[in-house]
């Protein structure tokens, strides 16, 4: 059922990437982090392309909890192109056989619930272990899903480009997450220079869409949850922080394009440059469904988002790969909210 509802998005992803999938024909791809928000969409788009284009490809998906994921996405349970492989990113037993491609997207970004040391270990050691596996299984192309957080805290509204590392330090928002991603990127480049496989890096900024967790630390997810529950939307901080959000279907297009056609040993910012303040986002969500709900600003000076901006410069991806956002924020918001309302309806019917 979820697959049918998402078919418009999946057809759109395929229409924008149809010419790039052939190198995966009759190949195997290994995916870490394949059961989170981003990873779920990687799997959805892979299965869709594999089926529609008759690629005869297989994806092996590393996960810590197979049963929990299949409860969330039961329509992916029996697809023969997916094989689930239970293990921990720090020490999983190498699956047998060779893989042509690897997407390494495993990171616990819920930094509020994990210690700084654990965050560093997971990012750095997990990346090193996966790079060793890439060498072992004779991979051809390796995509590391990094983060715009690796730049450090962005206090100015200016768009940040791939060469700007001046903001990285040991004291800003998510220091362990930021520094961990920076070191992991450095390791990827070392491996890429020393071994015979291509390394591509996607520095993902903010994105949203169906499957977005609504109960974690993502402001837009919290706002959508407030709106769906007909509650006032709560802004922590003053609402002045500026963000941009890429719709998840566009994100999939970018990631697959970077994996297949991105330049070796190159990092690309991945995101939208359509800027909104947190207050503007809250008000758009408040008015997305009638009757409108109230927006409350608590002006908490200790809030982590009080002056934290997060907007990428995406010129490099446009110049190298002709990538750009196609779905604007308002359309993406309506599609996301429609999906969650549809899911709520289905859940009520099941109950």
Proportion of residues in helical segments: 40-55%
Shape: globular
What is the terminal-to-terminal distance?
16 Å
Residue-averaged pLDDT: 90
H/E element string? HHEHEHEEHEHEEHEEEHEEHEHH
SS class: alpha/beta
Oligomer: single chain
For the sheet with most strands, the description reads:
7 strands, parallel
Number of strands: 13
Notes on the structure:
The protein has 351 residues and is an alpha/beta fold. It has eleven helices and 13 strands. It has helices at 2-5, 7-17, 37-52, 66-72, 116-136, 175-194, 219-228, 248-261, 278-286, 315-321, 329-350; strands spanning 28-32, 58-63, 82-86, 101-104, 141-147, 198-204, 207-208, 233-235, 242-243, 246-247, 266-270, 276-277, 295-297. The strands form four sheets. A seven-stranded parallel β-sheet has the order 3-2-1-4-5-6-11, with helices on both faces. A two-stranded parallel sheet has the order 7-10. The model has no long low-confidence stretch (mean pLDDT 90).
Secondary structure: elements and pairs:
Layout: H1 2-5, H2 7-17, E1 28-32, H3 37-52, E2 58-63, H4 66-72, E3 82-86, E4 101-104, H5 116-136, E5 141-147, H6 175-194, E6 198-204, E7 207-208, H7 219-228, E8 233-235, E9 242-243, E10 246-247, H8 248-261, E11 266-270, E12 276-277, H9 278-286, E13 295-297, H10 315-321, H11 329-350
Parallel strand pairs: 1-2, 1-4, 2-3, 4-5, 5-6, 6-11, 7-10, 8-13
Antiparallel strand pairs: 9-12
Helix pairs in contact: 2-3, 2-8, 3-8, 5-6, 7-9
């Amino acid at each position: 059922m979820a697959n049918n509802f998402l078919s418009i998005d999946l057809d759109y992803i395929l229409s924008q990437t149809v010419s790039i999938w052939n190198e995966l024909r009759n190949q195997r791809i290994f995916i870490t982090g394949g059961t989170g928000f981003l990873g779920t969409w990687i799997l959805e788009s892979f299965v869709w392309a594999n089926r529609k284009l008759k690629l005869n490809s297989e994806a092996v998906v590393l996960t810590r909890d197979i049963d929990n994921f299949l409860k969330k996405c039961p329509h992916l349970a029996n697809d023969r192109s997916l094989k689930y492989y239970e293990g921990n990113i720090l020490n999983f037993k190498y699956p047998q056989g060779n893989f042509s491609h690897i997407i390494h997207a495993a990171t616990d970004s819920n930094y509020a619930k994990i210690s700084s040391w654990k965050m560093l270990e997971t990012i750095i050691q997990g990346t090193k272990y996966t790079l060793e596996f890439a060498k072992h299984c004779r991979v051809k192309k390796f995509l590391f899903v990094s983060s715009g957080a690796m730049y450090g805290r962005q206090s100015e509204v200016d768009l940040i480009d791939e060469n700007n590392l001046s903001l990285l330090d040991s004291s800003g928002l998510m220091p362990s997450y930021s520094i961990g991603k920076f070191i992991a990127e450095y390791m990827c480049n070392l491996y890429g220079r020393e071994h015979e496989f291509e390394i591509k890096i996607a520095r993902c900024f903010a994105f949203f869409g169906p499957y977005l967790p609504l109960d974690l630390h993502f402001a837009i997810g919290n706002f959508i949850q407030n709106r769906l529950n007909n509650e006032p939307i709560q802004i922590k901080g003053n609402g002045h922080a500026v963000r941009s959000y890429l719709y998840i279907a566009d994100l999939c297009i970018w990631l697959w394009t970077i994996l297949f056609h991105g330049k070796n040993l190159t990092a690309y910012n991945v995101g939208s440059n359509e800027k909104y303040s947190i207050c503007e986002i809250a008000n758009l969500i408040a008015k997305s469904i009638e009757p409108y709900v109230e927006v409350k600003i608590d002006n908490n000076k200790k809030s982590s988002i009080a002056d934290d901006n997060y907007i990428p410069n995406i010129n490099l991806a446009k110049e190298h790969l002709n990538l750009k956002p196609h779905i604007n924020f308002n359309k993406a918001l309506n599609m996301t909210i429609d999906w969650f309302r549809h899911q709520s309806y289905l859940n009520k019917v099941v109950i």
